[in-house]
Amino acid sequence: MGTRVRLPFVDLPMALAALGLVTVGLLTVYSATTVPGAHEGLWIRQLLWFLLALAAAWMAAAIHYRAYESLAYPFYAISLLLLVAVLVFGTSAMGAKRWLELGPLKFQPSEIAKIATVFVLARRFDRPKLDLTRARHWLPPLLFTLVPFALVAKEPDLGTSLSFPVILITMYFWAGMPLGQLLLGLSPVLNVALFFLTGSLWWFAGLFALLLGLARPRLPALLIVLTLNAGVALAVPHMWNQLHDYQKRRIETFIRPDEDPYGAGYQIIQSKIAIGSGGVTGKGWLRGTQKGLSFLPMRHTDFVFSVVGEELGLIGALTVVVLYAVVVLRGFGLGAVARNGFASLMAVGLVSAFFYHVMVNVLMTIGWAPVTGLPLPLLSYGGTALIVNAVQLGLLQNVALRRHEY
Amino acid sequence: MPRFSPGGSTKEQRYLVLAGVALGGFLLIAAGLLQLQVVSHDEYRRLAQENRVRLEVLRAPRGAIYDRNGELLADNHPSFNIVFRPMPAESLSRATAAIDTTWLRRIATLVEADTAEVLELVRFANRSGQTAILRRNASFPMLAAVEETRAELPGIEVLIEPMRRYKYGRLAAHLLGYAGEITDTELDSLGSAGYRSGDLIGRSGVERSYEQVLRGHDGAEFVVVNAMGKRVSTLIEGPPRPPTPGHDLRLTLDLKVQLALEEAMKGVARGAAVAIDPRDGGVLAMVSRPAFDPNEFSQGLSFRRWAELSSGGANPLLNRAIQGAYPPGSTFKIVTMLAALRAGIAWPGTRLVPCDGSWEFGGRRFGCWKRAGHGSLDFIGAIQHSCDVYYYQIGPRLGIDALHAAASEFGFGGRTGIDLPQERRGLMPDLGYYERRFGVGNMRKGTLLNLAIGQGEILATPLQMALMAAEVAVGGAPIAPHVVHTVLGADEPAARSLRSGVTAAPAVWQAVRRGLERVVDDGTGTAARVEGIRVAGKTGTAQNPHGDDHALFVCYAPVDRPEIAMAFVIENSGHGGSVAAPLAGDVLERLYLPDSLRLKIRISPPRPDTTEVVHGD
């Protein structure tokens, strides 16, 4: 086990970008919680969490990734148990069970399950003669992903649960699955999504024909995909019509919580006013006006980016975006340069989840994505989320440290 | 080199694809930021400065409730509520300064409430950002007073919101139920179903069992308001979302029948009556006494009034028609007769040992209600005159299993599945029940004598008794009692329970019907006789360990083409034949006799009908 840490090989741009983001996060949490009322002084706790997170990142980087590789399955099993535990014992907030409480610690097991799933998938894809056109190579990873996906979706936490398919699709692609096959496999999902978006099946039919031309699947695969799609196309509208009105409404609010007129829609508008009123230069740190009272309810957690946009303006917000871009692009780059298969796959899987979270949260604050309750990595207040993000980044540095090893 | 196969593309190509996707995503964010912070900056700056976008909830009207002929029973009408609305951010300091004790006292005087109560509501509103209702359905003088002083009282407003109105007040109150404001505990458990503070939620009756279809889906609009909280315009980019009204309900209830039943039960202190249509099980009318006025709940109930309504022996909120369980008494002889006839242990013409006023069994004497005795009777005569001694002889021959089977088929001991909440099962003991209670083989010998005449452990709801009469009327066909005919505007029919009905040969039914018609024509139930229509019924007097006997009566009419089956239970009032049967006669007269012929003539004096049971060993 090469546990000797050689600092010079740390990916410096990524580390500096991450530190920059945490700094912005601390400043914003400080600003967001200085309005009269509750939450004052939260930034000190966040600072303490940050020190803890640094230590966690160090450890994640120091232990050779081969250890994670060999412990992937037990780790995965434990994370599934935690996901079941959260459904049974979890603390609910706003009707969803997402948190487990261990003494003073409160954490979302879905965060741990994400990392565990990346380990397992990386291990499965890192094998000689991998042929992802064969079911015995692509099916098990699919099942390994569907289990945590379903458990998290049941909480219900659609936002987080979708990061599992994002990880899987990215890693399929990175492991060499042809793009055509990937899209063809996704076609039943596209089918349903397009049906709900457009209300007609013709959009999908056109897209599907195009896909078939591109991918040219073998006959058995073609038949399976066709049957699946026909089944979905026939079953979904029928099932939908069978539902009661109130059941339909529940599904609609599940898919698009911002349709809920009181809660989420209100937040979106307040968030847009906060960001929009910030302008190019912003109102200045601590000078935001929209963060008071109930105007931005989750200003230090889910809507922290709105405070950034209001106080630091376009310049500050774009800087944050650039810092995220550095982390993500360097991360994918690490995947490309790492010589070890497991390390390379792990890097890409972790970065894809990170990227997904950033996109969903920021697009939510500017009103281009539904309100899903995902925090913004490294910026939002929240100790355990910060530690989990730090561990992810530590794992990426782990790959960076040993990128020349096979 | 990585060990996994390249699959047609090189690692570099794949990196470029991923990096491209990531860059595209970040550019999308940048575009969104440009749009908000540069292109629309002026508009958002204005909104942020003047402040104020506020969310106005557009309450969805709750569905109306109609009777089977489209007569309105419950709907909504506008109510003027005096509310406190939390201040927008920039005037927060101004608001906290304003809400001092003088402010509080003035508000409290205006809305006629305690200062502490108002303070609590205002604090909650400020914490949660939600509007707090200080006074529902305010009177016009109160509204005028508020309007006059509003400029000096920041945060106070008048909102018009739909309020539940029950057109006939107490009429069918237990069946309709009532809707009340949702409590904090309910909010915690139902928050995900889209309930908000201030929402109404059905708490009993149809209002509760059809909560999901009655309640609509609230809408909302974003409005721009000035610093005084006055509405300036609606926000351009969050177009108003109109509320979706709840579905209307058409009940099986018939206002005409309900009025007749209410009228008949006018003088009853405690008791219940149900009328159902034997052809489909639709409830035509349902009365429970004492009753309450559901309108009281719409206006917000004081804690004291609530305690008055919900506790105490009378408990007006209890729907005795489905939640009261009473010994069925002699009305249960219908079940015993059918069970005996279909088991072949007696025929309609069978004469047993003549009644001399009592029957000795197992060393104990069981008395007949008629101490002088009935003499020799056949089965028809035994039910006509409700002779207990005849039934004492039937009980042990029939056995617990056969009796329990027949009673279960009639619906005793189980919920009828009516679409009303909290229906009680009642109790129909089987052998296992006694074995659990007294040990295997220890069921007392006299038990079956008591059970055969509807005494002992048997308990039934008035609805179950009405169902028994209805089953006789239709010859055992499956009947599913229900109160909602259709959910208007919904694509599916209202749910119905599935019951299997009672199996017996046509001749058996004919004999039971003949017996019941004789009860009314020339037996214990003559008080229910109505000129011009054929009525079949059965009286009952249920012994009650807690007080005077309950008077019972079940019936259906007209015998040749049954349209209505009824059950009456009048608590602690005496004999079924003299107290309950006249009420049935009263209802039938109102329904079947033209007004001109509705004379209060009692053809013959009612005969007493009581069953005496020797209790204890």
In short:
The complex is a heterodimer of chains A (406) and B (617). With 406 residues, chain A is mainly α.
Structural account:
The complex is a heterodimer of chains A (406) and B (617). By secondary structure, chain A is mainly alpha-helical. Chain A has helices spanning 12-32, 42-62, 65-70, 72-89, 109-125, 135-153, 158-161, 163-174, 179-198, 202-215, 219-242, 245-255, 264-278, 304-337, 341-365, 383-401, and strands at residues 91-93, 96-102, 105-107. Chain A has a three-stranded antiparallel sheet with strand order 1-2-3. In chain B, the strands form five sheets. In chain B, strands 2, 3, 4, 5, 10 and 15 form a six-stranded mixed sheet that branches. Chain B folds into two domains: 54-251, Penicillin-binding protein 2a (Domain 2), CATH 3.90.1310.10; 258-292 and 318-597, 3-Layer(aba) Sandwich (Beta-lactamase). At the A-B interface, helix 8, helix 12, helix 13, helix 14 and helix 15 of A face helix 1, helix 2, strand 1 and strand 8 of B.
Key features?
heterodimer, A: 406 residues, mainly alpha, three-stranded antiparallel β-sheet, B: 617 residues, alpha+beta, Penicillin-binding protein 2a (Domain 2), Beta-lactamase, 2 domains, five-stranded antiparallel β-sheet, 22 helices, 37% helix, 17% strand
